[in-house]
Amino acid sequence: MEKYLISAVIWMAGYVMMAATPPIIVPGAIWPDNRGEHIQAHGGGLTQVGDTYYWFGEDRKQSNPRGRRYVSCYASTNLAQWTFRHQVVQLADPANLGRGWILERPKVFFHAPSRQFVMYAHIDNRTYKYARVAVFTCATVDGDYHYLNSFRPLGHESRDIGQFVDDDGLAYLIFEDRPFGFRIARLSTDYLNVDKEICLIPEHLEGGAIVHYDGLYYALGSALTGWDPNPNRYATAKTLAGPWSDFKEIAPPEKNTYGSQSSMLVKVTGTRATTVLFLGDIWKPNTQWDSRYLWMPLEIGAGKLTLPEPRDWTLDISTGESRIIK
Ligand code: GAL
Questions:
Q1: Which protein residue's CA is at the shortest distance from atom 12 of ligand 1?
Q2: Which residue among 23, 101, 135, 290 is least enclosed by CB atoms within 10 Å?
Q3: Residue 104 Cβ contacting ligand 1 at under 6 Å
Q4: Domain assignment of residue 292, yes or no
Q5: How many angstroms separate the Cα of 130 from the Cα of each of 9, 102, 148, 196, 248?
Q6: Whether the CB of 206 sits within 6 Å of ligand 1
C-alpha cells in the first residue's frame, strides 16, 4: 500500500513539474503508471486522439486469470506519464485455438467517418500455424472492444503486425507473411478489412513499423529470432509501393538493437521540431509481465536512420524537441 502511495505521490509531483521540465523517460526501466504499476502494453502501439495519446498493448500481468488474453489501454499527453484507463480486451479463445493460444501486437485505428475505433491484433494457436489477424471495434477509445472476426489478410499468412497511418490519413496494416516477406496493405474504407496490397518487400521482418519523414518512407523491422533480440534493420522509399532501398542496420549489429525489438515508429511534430521515436520491447520470455520498453528518439534524415545508445531522455511535446540527458 505504502509503495503505491509513494509512487502516486512521485507521479503527481512529476505532473506538477511537467510545465517546467518535461518528465524523464528511462529506457529499459520499470515504467510505472499512475497507480505505480509497471505498464502492461507490450508489443503495443499509440493512437492519438486530439492531444491525448493512447497506448495499447499486450497486458501480461501475472494476476490475469488464465485462459483469456488481455489488452490494456493507457493515456498520456506527454508520452512519459501514463494513466491506466482500462483492460479493453479480455477475450476468451474465440476460435478453438486451444491451450496457449496467442493474441499479440494489438494496434488501434480511429475510423473518423463512423467515429469508431478498430483494433487489429495477431491471433494464433500455440504453434503459430493459424496466422491470422483478429479485428475488434469499440465506440470509445478505451471502452470494451468487441471481437468481430479473424481472417488472413488478402488470403496471406499474417503473424507480427504493425500499423501505419500516413500524413494523408490513409491507414495501412503491415504484416509478416512467411514465406514471402513483409507486406504493406491498405485497410478497406470501413477499416474492418484489408483491401489492397501496396507492396511486398521480400524480406523477413517482424515488429514491422513505418514512418513518413521529410519526404521519405522508412520501414523497419527485426529478424525472425522469436523473443531474442537481433539487429533490427530499415530501408527507405519515396512511395510506399517502393522501390525500397537495401536494408541496413539501425545500430551497430553487435548491440542487437540494445536488447529490444521494434514495435512502432511515432512522429511527434511540435512548434520547433519533429522527433521520430522508436518504440521497442525488451522481452523477458520467462517473466513476460516484467518485459520492458525501449523508447528512444531516432537520428533520422536524408535516408539515414540510427537508434542511439539508450540513455535517459525528455520530450517537450509542444515544441517537439527531445533531449538526451545522460
Ligand atoms: C517474436 C514476435 C513476438 C512473438 C514472439 C514469439 O518474433 O515479434 O510478437 O510472437 O516472436 O516467439
A1: 226
A2: 290
A3: yes
A4: yes
A5: 46, 10, 17, 22, 31
A6: yes
